Amino acid sequence: MNMGKKEPKIAVLVSWWTKRCGVKDYWLKIDKFLEKNIKTDIIKNTRGPTLNPFYFISLAKKCKKYDLLHVQHNYSLFGSIFNKINSIHAFLFYFLVKFPKGPKIITTMHDIVEPRKLNFIKRAYLDFMNLPLKLFSNKIIVHRNVVRDQLIRQGFKAKNIYVVNYGVDDVKGLLSPKEARRRFGLPERKTVVQFGFVRPDKRYELTINAMTELPDVQLFILGDTPYKNYFKFLKKEISKKGLEKRVIFKDKIPQNMNYAWLSCGDVIVLPYARISASGVLSDAISTHLPIVTSDIPEFKETEKLGVLKTTNVNSETEFAKTISEVIKNPNTTKANILKYIKKNNRNEVAKRTKQIYEEVLSKK
Fold first, then answer.
1. What is the mean pLDDT of the chain?
2. pTM for this model (two decimals)
């Protein structure tokens, strides 16, 4: 990176207090390509949810030594009470980093809330969480145009927001669904896969409902189950509908085996209620498999690129019909998926990130 005589010092602040974290996984994949062209230091936020202000004072002191700080942000990054009241010390952290004579700051926002769905009190709380990002970030990065529009409605300046795609893996040597099922011992029948953390906003129950209208298809649920009450509810629904022999659960998959296990599916479904940055969608696209999603705006934006099919997942008949059509015509989106991967693989995202660093550092 040619920025004159002195090579700029760049740090990236990443959440690091859980073994599996989507934000951490995202950045490590980008950093693998970014490091080929630019040196960055990763600063690990190992105690993000803590309410101890002295931890964030110490963290700010570390970050202040750099010319540019890139924050991989979610709202629980700077102090959280039971993950309900968040960003307790965000203002303190950003202020101490920035003043006096602190680095320039880029914030990538991974967790976005749609303000139009909030009442007055929750909207005021969202404004409180966003205030330090608005005041102290030189630039904001988001992963979708629809998210950019949401931030503008929240009072962020349009000129300060970059849209940089989340990025996908360019995976070679993927197994066919039949090969994958044979390798992992799954029954040989058409298979729907839903994966990721098994939690309510992923709406696994809607896929289970649709299975009642797909008698020749099995459902493979692949993901950890931290929400035990929700998991119990799903098991009851499966039993009530007599689907025990056609719904298979698998958790604790090694990350390096993720795509091999996902390849067991003929179609991947994502009937989500909401997303912001979605590592699950990125992984789904990386498998080259057909994808069926809910018709929320974020997925609608991606559907325009021809890499997935949205549907009314709240109607089990419509959901099942779309799944069936996609299984019968599995190659409809394949060419568009390969084109999307070529344009939005991690290396391309790393190049775009480097360009943003150079632009921000070049401005006085």
1. 91
2. 0.86
